[in-house]
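Researcher: Re-running this chain for the archive, since the previous output was lost when a drive failed. Same request as before.
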Amino acid sequence: MSRSHHLHASVETCHWGQFDPNLAPVLRVDSGDEVVIDALSGGPDVLPPAGFYVPPELHDVHARSVRNLPGHILTGPVHVKGAEPGDTLEVRILDVQLRQDWGYNVIRPLAGTLPADFDDTHRLLNIPLDRERMTGRMPWGLDLPLHPFFGVMGVAPPARWGRISTIVPRAHGGNLDNKELGPGSSLFLPVHLPGALFSCGDGHAAQGDGEVCTTAIETALQGRFQFIVHKGTGLAYPRAETPTHFITMGMDPDLDQCLAMALRDMIVLIGEKRGLSRADAYTLCSLAVDFRITQTVNVSRGVHAMLRKELLK
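Model: Regenerated C-alpha cells:
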C-alpha cells in the first residue's frame, strides 16, 4: 500500500542554487507514495514590507544555508526506491497551493528577453495575493487570475555533470517554467542516478508563456505529488501530460533548436502511442500540434509541443 509523507521546508531539507548528484536524500519513499512538499522562494532582497506573512523557515534559510551557485531554493532531494538509470520517474502533480499572501516580480538590468531595452531598470514589485479569490493585485489595479505551478522540478543530473545551477533547464528537468504543469498533470523525467533524487521549488503564482522579464509572480508553494517509477523505458528527455494533451519539450540557447527537439520527440511519441510512420507523424504535427515558447530567459530557452490526446485514440 502507498503511504503519505510531508516534507517540510527547512535548512536541513532545502538546498540553494544547485542540482548536485552528490546531495544526500532528505526523504526516502516507495514508488506509488504521495508526498506533500513545502517550498520557499526568493532571497532576503525580495521580502515584502511588514504586514505580510513570511514563512519563518525562509529567514532561517537566508541566515544559515550555503548558496553555492546563483539559482533557486529547492526542497529535496527525495529518493524514490527502485528508480535506476534507464527508468522514468513519473511525477504526478496532484495539488498545488499558495503558502503565503504575497509574491514578487523583478526586472533586472541586462536580463530578460529585452536586455538592451531595460538596461537601466531595476524594479521589485511585491504583489499581494488573495488566496480566496485566487487573484494577485497589480499596482495599476488589475486583479490577475492566479494559476500556481512549480517552475523548477527535476531529478539529480548525471554524475559526470557534477554540481550545476538550477537556472538552466536540461535533460534532468529543472527550471522548466512550463505553466501547463499544474494540478492534474504529470511530468516524466529520465532517471540518471539511483533513487532519481527529485527536488522542486521556484513557485509561480502566475506566468505567461515566455516569462519575458525573467520572473513570474514568484512565491512559496505547497505541492502534493505522487511518484511512480516506470522501469526500463529509456526516456532521454522530459515529457509531460495534462488531462487533455501530450507534451514534448526542447531546451537550447537557440529557439530554432528548441522547436526541432520538441518536434522530433513528438514524432517519436506519436509513433509510440499510435504506431504511425514517421512521415505520418510529421504530417500530424504540422496539422494538429501547437508549439509554444515556454520561456526565453533561462540561458537555454524552451519550446513545448502540445498534442490533444483525443487525436491518438
